[in-house]
Amino acid sequence: MDDADAGTNPGPVTGGRMVPWKNDDLREFMEEVAANELAHVRFYRRTLGSQAVPRPAIDLGAFAAAAKAAALGDNFDPFASEMNFFLGGMLMEDVGVTAYHGAVPLIGNKQFLDAAAGILAVEAYHMGMARSVLYRMGDEARKAANKLSDARDKLDGPEDVDQGIEVNGKANIVPADADAKAFSRTPQQVLRIVYLADKPGVSGGGLFPKGMNGTLRST
């Protein structure tokens, strides 16, 4: 993303490097995801105009802390391998799906609600692909993905709502309730995960060391 897409005086992005791709299909999958996310940013900036906030400071090195909390080791690098990159993507993209669902009651404008529904569908497509890829990578990837799911559950509150990619020895590509509906998270629950903070009143940390920009900042 160019700074032109990041708003006025955007925060810095630290960490990250090129993934050593071995499988062209997997690389193309994630290139498509990246293009979709950039299009989302540009859509929001175009739609919100002067109300759009600049990009907050982002620390991609915080993935290591998130992985450590999930018992994946002290030196997890989401850019070190294809599997790690998909695991890092799952850590955040799953949260994005639940965040959009949780935001629905807060959106009164039907035009904005329609846009949010369209973007939610794309995020869900992304996660269905990523969860499927991780499941097919085998036992190591499945166990790691489930550990990330458990770690998210510990961060976002007392209710056990998150679901890994394997449940009772079978594939669980679509995390959903008994009615096959995706579950949702409140903005505060989402912030607890991205800040890596398991308590209320936190306004920064984790992937966003100085907090999010805008009106919703605190867990």
SSE inventory with pairings:
Blueprint: E1 13-14, H1 24-48, E2 58-59, H2 62-69, H3 82-103, H4 110-136, H5 139-155, E3 166-167, E4 170-171, H6 187-194
Parallel strand pairs: 1-2
Antiparallel strand pairs: 3-4
Verbal overview:
With 219 residues, the chain is mostly helical. The protein has a domain at 22-59 and 79-187. The protein is 49% helix and 4% strand. The protein has helices at residues 24-48, 62-69, 82-103, 110-136, 139-155, 187-194, and strands spanning 13-14, 58-59, 166-167, 170-171. A hairpin with a 2-residue loop joins strand 3 and strand 4 (170-171). The mean pLDDT is 92.
Summarize this structure as a short list of keywords or feature phrases.
6 helices, two-stranded parallel ribbon, mainly alpha, 4 strands, 219 residues
Please report the distance between the alpha carbons of the first and last residues.
Answer: 27 Å
Q: What share of the residues lie within helices?
A: 40-55%
Radius of gyration: 17 Å
- pLDDT below 50 for ≥5 consecutive residues: which ranges? none
Strand order of the largest sheet: 1-2
Structure classification = mainly alpha
**What's the shape?**
globular
**H/E topology pattern:** EHEHHHHEEH
Round the mean pLDDT to the nearest integer and report it: 92
Q: How many alpha or pi helices?
A: 6
Biggest sheet, open or closed, and with what strands and sense?
A: 2 strands, parallel
Percent of residues in beta strands = under 5%
DSSP, total strands: 4
